[in-house]
Amino acid sequence: LYGVLLGLADWLGREEKVFEDMTWRDGLIVGIAQALAIIPGTSRSGVTMTAARALGYKRVEAARFSFLLSIPAVAGAGVLIVPEIFEAGSELALRALIAGVLTFIAAFATMAFLMNFLKRASMLVFVLYRVAMGVALLYFF
Asked: What is the pTM of this model?
């Protein structure tokens, strides 16, 4: 379902708005869409990019806003787990810190790749992936 919605939003959405055009209304709509990520199988970044594309934001701008929205969610999750890491001991805390730094580097590189990719291509590859994964999971379960 979400793959089809992303495809429709990408194919039918205008490519006229940029991040600086974001209004309170648009931000609220994309934020509400982000809340759908609590539903299992929902991609937080996918649903926020779908909402932004449906509102007429350019692909790169939709991805940019989606990535910016991830900062509070990821930072909040990190803050919640910090006490547990330190309770487990200093060796685990060091491993968690190293893993966190490596994850940040990988996420940053992935975002840079995706932003560059979306300058030249549509979201079709993500639509096909989501639909194929959905069909496979429905078949499996």
From this structure: 0.78
